[in-house]
Write a structure and sequence with these properties.
By secondary structure, the protein is of the alpha+beta class. The chain has seven helices and nine strands, in the order ααββββαβαβααβββα. A hairpin with an 8-residue loop joins strand 3 and strand 4.
Length: 280
């Protein structure tokens, strides 16, 4: 059963539209979509939003009345998504949106106290030693508030193994030699060292990076270059050209000989004439 207040508010749809147009402009207000009671003395009138940027949305004008003889007033005007409205994706907290590799120069990413990748380590351990802890002590977690948990190690191993420096990467599948037999491979300490190490070959693209035991590249220490001699054919003698050359040389020799003979004959004639002249 509707009350006097509800009837009064229901009949105020024209008033609601007038207030909406004054606030939003006529061009963005569409047909009337009905009303809904929000509680005692409060009712909302709905109007279609015809703005192309908000397809499926509607305007909600909430009215209120404090007494039967009081004027109806506007409580709020809002834009609300309806069925089929285009909405943004559900909000995701920033710490859940960060992805691998997002931390860059100058970025700071706080680690949650409940991060399941970490477990409590040893605290106050310095008091147990007279000397400063060595790097070997830090390797097993001394003086660190938290250390990597079993879950953290498993998650890390799975990520590294499936990454670009695991056994299934393109560079690893292109070679036959694997990292665990390479002299440039240095194992990690702890349980992760059973599967991973660091490459130290400065000529490799993996230098200074964590690689799996069954990874590989073309810079393996035991790759030996094989020298191959280039086969050459036997010496070929061109008989045809050689005969032509010999004929040319022979003709030249003959010509030289004829010239020499002519010169000799000339000399002989000259000497005979001289003797005849001298006898006379």
């Amino acid at each position: 059963m509707t009350t006097t207040f509800e009837n009064k508010l229901n009949q105020a749809k024209d008033f609601a539209r007038q207030q909406l147009v004054e606030e939003i402009t006529e061009s963005r207000v569409g047909e009337y979509l009905g009303s809904v009671s929000e509680g005692e003395n409060v009712l909302t009138h709905k109007f279609k939003c015809v703005d192309k940027a908000y397809a499926g949305w509607y305007w909600a004008v909430t009215l209120a009345a404090s007494a039967e003889d009081s004027n109806v007033t506007v409580s709020e005007i809002v834009l609300i998504p309806g069925e089929g409205a285009l909405l943004a994706k559900a909000w995701i907290p920033w710490e859940q949106r960060v992805e691998a590799g997002d931390i860059g120069v100058g970025d700071v990413l706080p680690t949650s106290k409940t991060d399941e990748r970490l477990v409590p380590g040893f605290s106050g351990v310095e008091d147990l030693f007279e000397e400063t802890l060595t790097p070997q002590g830090f390797e097993i977690g001394f003086a660190r508030e938290r250390v990597l948990s079993v879950f953290g190690k498993d998650q890390t191993a799975e990520r590294w193994n499936k990454g670009d420096r695991g056994p299934n990467s393109a560079i690893a599948e292109a070679v036959t030699e694997q990292c665990f037999t390479c002299g440039f491979y240095v194992s990690l300490s702890g349980s992760l060292g059973q599967m991973f190490g660091v490459c130290t070959n400065k000529f490799s693209v993996e230098d200074g990076k964590v690689v799996s035991l069954d990874h590989g590249c073309g810079g393996h220490s035991e790759i030996v270059a094989t020298l191959h001699s280039i086969p050459t054919g036997e010496t070929v003698l061109d008989d045809e050209n050689l005969d032509d050359q010999m004929e040319v040389e022979t003709d030249d020799e003959i010509a030289d000989l004829e010239v020499d003979d002519l010169e000799t004959e000339v000399d002989l004639i000259d000497e005979a004439e001289l003797e005849e002249e001298s006898s006379n």
